[in-house]
């Protein structure tokens, strides 16, 4: 019953050995758990938030953790909707697919954390003082093969100890089936536990290297990995260790549930006899304790995802991303409002500056103006221009913007041009005087 979507071993063991309902009927009330899909989908969105900055860093283990968490929560949410209050065989093909994914997630998350800790240990040690593009590419390929290849092998090996097609639990949906035996201990339980132990070893080595170089650790990180700041390094390390503590707790519970006894793995045919059976488990098959453990098993997946989100949602990288996101939204909303209600007063006050669009009166002026007409200054400091009569104002920009510049002012007298165009806008011009300025650094 781990954070990785592992199975309720005792459920399969007792049912397989007795062949009958093994709990007292009616111990669990027939409740509706409408909060299950809501929380699952909400958490699925939360784990996607740190994706942009990990994508730019090409952090394959962390991106894989995000992907496995996202898919696992989507599966939990969809299952909670389809099997709300029933154990009917609604989507057998869906169950065949998602139970494989749930099985792979059992080992995928520990492997991702192991890859992350190995990378952090190499950075903290003297073995990695810089990475060439080819080295980085090689590391990404190895990380991808481990984070996705090992779970694929684990899914295939699960078939060896898969006693029937899958289980269907009321309100929780389909779950992987398991023939609890000595073979299942070595194939299903031991590999994730070994990965957890290796993760703690490499995490401890990384902390050891840190204490050795704690005075120059920030400079060492810049030499070893230019994209990794000390704050991000420790967040990654803490996240990996906490995820392993949570996953190790779940794996230990799974192994403890097997203390009631193991089924004999006599032969392949015996284990896979009536393989295409689907076992249904309504509420009344559970007593309060058994249902509590099954329920905790379901909630362990969203809880693990929330732990991941907390480590990356409030750091410096996250705050920068949030600021950039809201700034882009503000620019889009602000400029859309400006284009909708544009007038010369908005331009004068500088309420919105567009870097791509051209003011309406300037576009009209460009269309109607005869640029072949010479411009002759009226005085030594005056030049003749022409703009629409509605724009009779003095245009300026806030002085605060130019606090570091020296301004030299010139006065321009605006007079009408002899337009040949018949456009109505070209005949309605007037004299306007405004002040312009040249900028030069102090």
Mean pLDDT equals: 72
Order of SSEs, N→C? HHHHHHEEHHHHEHHHHEE
The helix tally amounts to 14
Number of β-strand runs: 5
- Rg measurement, Å: 34 Å
Structural class: mainly alpha
Query: Regarding CATH, which class of the largest domain?
Result: Mainly Alpha
Strand order of the largest sheet: 2-1-3
List the SSEs and their pairings.
Elements: H1 9-18, H2 35-46, H3 51-56, H4 60-82, H5 92-124, H6 133-158, E1 166-169, E2 173-175, H7 182-212, H8 217-224, H9 230-256, H10 268-271, E3 278-281, H11 288-313, H12 316-340, H13 344-349, H14 360-368, E4 405-414, E5 432-441
Parallel strand pairs: 1-3
Antiparallel strand pairs: 1-2, 4-5
Describe the structure.
With 442 residues, the protein is mostly helical. It folds into 2 domains: 9-317, Rhopdopsin 7-helix transmembrane proteins, CATH 1.20.1070; 342-441, no CATH class. Helix content is 56%, strand content 7%. It has 14 helices and 5 strands. The longest helix has 33 residues, at 92-124. The radius of gyration is 34 Å and the shape is globular. 33% of the residues are buried.
């Amino acid at each position: 019953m781990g954070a990785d979507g592992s199975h309720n071993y005792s459920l399969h063991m007792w049912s397989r050995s007795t062949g009958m309902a093994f709990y007292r009927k009616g111990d669990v009330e027939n409740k509706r758990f409408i909060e299950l899909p809501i929380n699952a989908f909400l958490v699925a969105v939360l784990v996607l938030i740190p994706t942009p900055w990990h994508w730019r860093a090409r952090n394959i283990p962390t991106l894989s953790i995000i992907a496995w968490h996202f898919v696992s929560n989507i599966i939990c949410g969809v299952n909670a909707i389809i099997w709300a209050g029933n154990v009917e065989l609604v989507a057998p093909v869906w169950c065949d697919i998602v139970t494989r994914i749930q099985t792979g997630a059992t080992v995928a998350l520990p492997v991702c954390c192991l890859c992350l800790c190995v990378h952090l240990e190499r950075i903290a040690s003297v073995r990695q003082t810089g990475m060439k593009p080819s080295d980085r590419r090689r590391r990404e390929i190895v990380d991808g093969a481990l984070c996705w290849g090992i779970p694929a092998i684990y899914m295939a090996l699960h078939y060896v100890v898969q006693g029937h097609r899958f289980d269907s639990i009321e309100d929780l949906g389909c779950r992987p089936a398991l023939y609890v035996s000595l073979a299942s201990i070595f194939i299903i339980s031991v590999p994730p536990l070994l990965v957890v132990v290796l993760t703690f070893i490499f995490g401890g080595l990384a902390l050891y290297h840190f204490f050795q170089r704690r005075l120059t650790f920030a400079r060492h990180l810049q030499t070893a990995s230019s994209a990794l700041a000390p704050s991000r390094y420790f967040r990654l390390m803490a996240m990996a260790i906490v995820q392993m503590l949570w996953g190790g707790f779940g794996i230990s519970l799974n192994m403890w549930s097997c203390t009631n006894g193991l089924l004999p793995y006599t032969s392949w045919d015996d284990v896979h006899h009536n393989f295409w059976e689907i076992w249904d488990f309504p509420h009344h098959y559970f007593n309060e304790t058994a249902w509590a453990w099954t329920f905790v098993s379901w909630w362990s997946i969203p809880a693990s995802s929330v732990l991941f989100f907390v480590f990356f949602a409030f750091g410096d990288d996250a705050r920068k991303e949030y600021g950039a996101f809201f700034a882009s939204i503000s620019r889009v909303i602000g400029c859309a409002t400006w284009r909708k209600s544009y007038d010369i007063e908005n331009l004068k006050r500088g309420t919105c500056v567009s870097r791509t669009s051209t003011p309406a009166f300037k576009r009209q002026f460009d269309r109607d103006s005869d640029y072949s007409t010479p411009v002759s200054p009226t005085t030594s400091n005056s030049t003749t221009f022409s703009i629409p009569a509605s724009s009779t104002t003095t245009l300026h920009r806030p002085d605060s913007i130019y606090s570091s510049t020296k301004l030299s002012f010139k006065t321009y007298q605006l007079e009408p041009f002899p337009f040949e165009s018949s456009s109505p806008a070209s005949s309605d011009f007037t004299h306007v005087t405004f002040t312009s300025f040249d900028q030069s650094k102090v």
